[in-house]
Amino acid sequence: MSRQFPALVYYSSKSGNTHRFVTRLGIEAARISEDPDAPLPDPKEAFVLICPTYADGQGRGAVPKQVIRFLNDATKRARLVGVIASGNRNFGATYGLAGRVIAEKCNVPLLYTFELAGTETDISRVRAGLEKIGRPLCSTAQ
Questions:
Q1: pLDDT in the model for residue 46
Q2: Whole-number mean pLDDT of the chain?
Q3: For residue range 88-125, what is the model confidence (pLDDT) as tens digits?
C-alpha cells in the first residue's frame, strides 16, 4: 500500500503551536522531544521536517538545539526532503528563519512557512503540498 504523504518529523516547544498545527494536519508524525536525553525519531524513509523558529533579535538560536542534534545524524539528514517552518511575523526578518537555515544547510527546499499554530488555509495548503511530494516518493520506479 502506498503512502499519500511523506513521513513527517516535527519539533514543538511547550507553547504547543507546532504540535497543534501537526495535529490539525491529521497526518501521522514523529515528534522530536524537548528532553535532551529522550531518544530521537529515526525515520526509515524520506521525510519532511516541521520546525518552529526561536531566535534573538540577531537571528541567533533560530534552530532549536534538539533539531540540530537530530539533523547532526548524517543518515537522518540524508532522508530529509524538505522543511516547513513556523514563526511569529512580529519578529520581522527572523520570521521562519529556522526553516531557511535548515534548508540552506541541508540543501533541501523550504516548502512553506506559517505563523504560530497556522490557519485553516495553511493546513489546506500544507496538506496539498505534502500530497504532491508524497506521490513521487511512492513511485515504484527505481
A1: 94
A2: 89
A3: 998 888 899 999 999 999 999 999 999 999 999 999 99
Q: For residue 71, what is its C-alpha cell?
A: 539533523
C-alpha to C-alpha distance for 32 and 10, rounded to whole angstroms: 6
Residue 4 pLDDT exceeds 90 = no
Cell of 66: 534538539
Measured distance CA(132)–CA(70) in Å, rounded = 25
- Is the model more confident about 106 or about 6? 106
Element (H, E) at 98: helix 97-106
Cα(35)–Cα(42) distance, integer angstroms: 16
Amino acid at site 55: A
Q: Coil, helix or strand for 48?
A: strand
- Separation CA 114–CA 135 (nearest Å): 23
What integer pLDDT is reported at residue 8 of this predicted model? Answer: 96
75 three-state secondary structure: helix
Question: In angstroms, rounded to a whole number, what is the distance separating the alpha carbons of residues 112 and 70?
Answer: 20
Nearest partner of 83 among 135, 55, 46, 118, judged by Cα: 46
Q: Which residue has the cell 524538505?
A: 82
